[in-house]
Design a protein that fits this description.
3 domains, 387 residues, 5-stranded mixed beta sheet, D-Maltodextrin-Binding Protein, domain 2, Arc Repressor Mutant, subunit A, 16 helices, elongated, alpha/beta, 49% helix
């Protein structure tokens, strides 16, 4: 079912019953009457199509479904941050944040622009803060609006996870895993893990968004993706994320077949005499490239082209005498076909750490935990193959 059909006060009442064990205590906690809490519970059970509590003389005993939902609801309410917020307002602000205008929000959500305008306006009044401001024909979220929208997106992610976990009680695991794939994960590691996961959990949807660390870190923080896979950052991007290493990758110097340095065992001075294609400053690979020359006390060679796109780099290498630094896995097909060749290895000790980045407060669902386990297994297989 859609989370937008749910009532936040009803959800708060459910979580309170699980936490306190009785309707009367829950009613006091959420500032509703006992009949209102009883009615809210009946509506939730009807909407979800399952029983949430066993009624006993000594109180309410949560069913497995309620025990799964309650912590997700509690986390969502913390992200929302106010009892005065309604689900319609949560939906409206997310739509406006994504759509950039009331017309755009309407196209995304299917709600009428006047309804969205009213919901966002009422939300600003309820929270006592300005959430949007006009910029020409569009809208911009204020800093308070951006913080509120992030909280709402995270709340949405928690509720979707909870509904997916509850649905899995009655049959095969369902739900969704949203993955941010950085360049180093795409060649072998991620495809192996996804293929293995799909065989075990065919009903769980997998959405993969490709991008750089810069492009993916904010969607991760917003709860739009569950995890990022690729080269880890040192130092960490911040205390709100957790990085877990899976394996190490040692890039090599690559060029086109027939390059003047091919089959010559060149030293670093010879390598430095050619132009390079390297990713932008600040990326782990650029840091490794810079360290290679800095450690030898040599001037860094020119980088006339900066790119992190493996597809673009492959095309440029085949058309000139450029050199680049990439993982052999990223160009495995080209190496086998003989279109590209390895010119040299990196000096010992220079390597990148490949791993998973998640939100520090993220609680994975059972399928998401299973995927992480398969990802770790794929990394261990890759390590054994490269020994």
């Amino acid at each position: 079912m859609s989370i937008w059909l749910l009532n936040l006060r009803h959800l708060a009442a459910l979580a309170a019953i699980v936490r306190l064990g009785s309707i009367s205590a829950a009613a006091r906690a959420v500032a509703l009457t006992q009949p209102a809490v009883t009615q809210a519970l009946a509506k939730l059970e009807a909407a979800l199509g399952l029983r949430l509590f066993d009624r006993r003389p000594d109180g309410m005993v949560a069913t497995p479904a309620a025990r799964l939902l309650a912590p997700r609801i509690e986390a969502a309410l913390v992200h929302i941050g106010s009892r005065r917020v309604t689900m319609a307002q949560v939906r409206a602000l997310i739509a406006v944040a994504d759509g950039g205008s009331y017309a755009g929000a309407s196209a995304l959500s299917g709600l009428a622009p006047p309804s969205l305008h009213r919901a966002v306006g009422d939300l600003g009044l309820a929270l006592g803060r300005s959430l949007v401001e006009r910029r020409g024909r569009g809208l911009m979220l204020t800093s308070a609006g951006r913080r509120t929208a992030r909280g709402f997106r995270l709340a949405r992610a928690e509720l979707l996870a909870g509904l997916g976990e509850v649905a899995g009680l009655a049959g095969p695991a369902v739900g969704r895993i949203a993955i941010g794939a950085m360049p180093l994960s795409r060649a072998r590691l991620l495809p192996q893990a996804v293929a293995a996961f799909h065989r075990l959990y065919p009903e769980v949807a997998i959405a993969i968004a490709e991008g750089s660390h810069v492009e993916l870190i904010e969607p991760l923080r917003d709860g739009e993706i569950d995890m990022m896979i690729g080269a880890l950052r040192h130092p960490s991007p911040g205390p709100d994320v957790v990085q877990v290493a899976l394996m190490h990758d040692r890039p090599v110097v690559l060029a086109r077949a027939g390059h003047p340095l091919a089959e010559t065992a060149p030293d670093l001075a010879a390598i430095a005499s050619y132009p390079w294609i390297v990713s932008a400053p600040g990326t782990p690979l650029r840091g490794q490239w810079e360290a290679m020359f800095d450690a030898a006390g040599m001037a860094r060679p020119p980088v006339p082209i900066e790119s992190g796109s493996v597809m673009i780099i492959r095309g440029l290498l085949r058309g000139g005498d450029f050199l680049t630094l990439l993982s052999p896995d990223q160009v495995a097909s080209e190496l086998v076909a003989g279109w590209l060749v390895q010119i040299a290895e990196m000096p010992p000790g220079l390597r990148r750490t490949i791993g998973v980045t998640t939100r520090a407060d993220w609680t994975p669902t059972a399928p998401q935990r299973a995927f992480l386990a398969l990802l770790k297994a794929a990394a261990e297989t890759s390590i054994r193959q490269n020994l």
